[in-house]
Amino acid sequence: METEKLKDVADFAAKVETAQQFNILTPSRYGKESYSAELQFGGYNHLMLTIIDIMKVCVVALDAQEDLAPQFHSASNISAVLDIAIQLMPMEESQILDDCHQLHLKLKQLRG
Known about the structure:
By secondary structure, the protein is mainly alpha-helical. The chain has one domain. A two-stranded antiparallel ribbon has the order 1-2. α2 packs antiparallel against α3. The longest helix has 22 residues.
């Protein structure tokens, strides 16, 4: 009986080791016990619209909490979702938008 259990565990371990299904999480560059999952967007506009939608859902959830009993409040869940939205914000790219805007103003002034 014990030998059979050990064989089952060994078989399971072999399946896990060679599994093709564990593709979503990849080791993160930020730490040993941290993983990343890739999200795909059609472009920056799609990304920004997704972030806005996430934030809208959180606003609705926060507003709805006023009508819920305290045991159904989920501030920690809403906080986690907002944290994802923050991580999705293309902060480095926003500097490029500022640079483009300054260039636009400069070109407009030169033409004007």
